[in-house]
Amino acid sequence: MSDDLQANLDDYLVQLQQVEAALVSEPNNEELMKLKVDLEEVINITKELIQSTLGLREPHVDNSASEEPKPVKDWKVIFFVLPHRILIEKRANFDMHAMSGIFVVKSVGDKCMAVWSKNNQLYEAVIDGISEGKAAVTFVGYNVTEINKLHLLRICENTQPKRYLWDSKPKGKSLWQVEKERRRKKAQKKAQRQKQLEEEKEMEKMKWKDFSSKAVSKSYKGVKKESIFASPDTESGRVGVGTCGISGKPMTNFISHEKLVTGKSSQLSL
């Protein structure tokens, strides 16, 4: 009982040393500072549990009930990977100081620690059914089935080992770094694509501008284009009469064309 708590305490002290060593290189890291505070709180709670267990008397064991299984432990401390949340369970007369719902039932067939009504101790069991906040469990190795309330079920240590805040930090940080890199590459690719589209759009715009300017001007070297509606050069000239460059000149006279008819001496006028 106290040996298990002492082993846990040694683990927490080692983790605290690792956090303090990391803070030497990163003194302003808020995550490491918060983790240090959590570990110190866990260490203090574990020390209090060790001191309290030293003053407890061992419970009287009735040797006549030899068919009853031996309890797994009298004390158990469980630490979950949840920020600023430490669940502590004291199983003396089943006085629970931790939050309820430590074990979350997922499906039938899960292993858990259930209460045997004969001595109110926890034993390994398998869930057979779930209904209205209760679960039917069968104790492993004894073929005994009982009904337990869901909030009394606890984690089975054989299938769900303890995890610590320090153990989960590197993995979580690594996953975040991967996600951050993926988002950065995605944003960079999107910006590059947007820039390429803008360049293509600007190029098409310049092509159309060049084409329209050529179509309007129709410029040729050595030829000066003038409007037919320009002001005449002389007083007798009229606007719009004649073509470009000859405004102000009188109208041209009609010239009659004659055609020579073969076999006739006379010419026909057209």
Supply the number of helical segments.
3
Gap between N and C termini, in Å? 136 Å
Number of strands: 8
The share of residues in helices is 25-40%
Main β-sheet, spatial strand arrangement:
3-4-5-6
> Overall pLDDT, averaged?
69
Q: Which structural class fits the helix and strand makeup?
A: alpha+beta
What is the 3D form?
A: elongated
Protein name: Survival of motor neuron-related-splicing factor 30
Domain Tudor: 105-163
InterPro entries: Tudor
Region (Disordered): 176-203
Describe this structure in words.
By secondary structure, the chain is α+β, with helices and mostly antiparallel strands. The protein has a domain at about 165-235. About 40% of the residues lie in helices and about 15% in strands. It has helices at about 1-25, 30-55, 165-215; strands spanning about 75-80, 85-90, 110-115, 120-130, 135-140, 145-150, 260, 270. It is elongated and about 145 Å long.
List keywords for this structure.
single chain; 270 residues; alpha+beta; four-stranded antiparallel β-sheet; two-stranded antiparallel sheet; 3 helices; Survival of motor neuron-related-splicing factor 30
Summarize the structure.
By secondary structure, the protein is an alpha+beta fold. The protein is 38% helix and 15% strand.
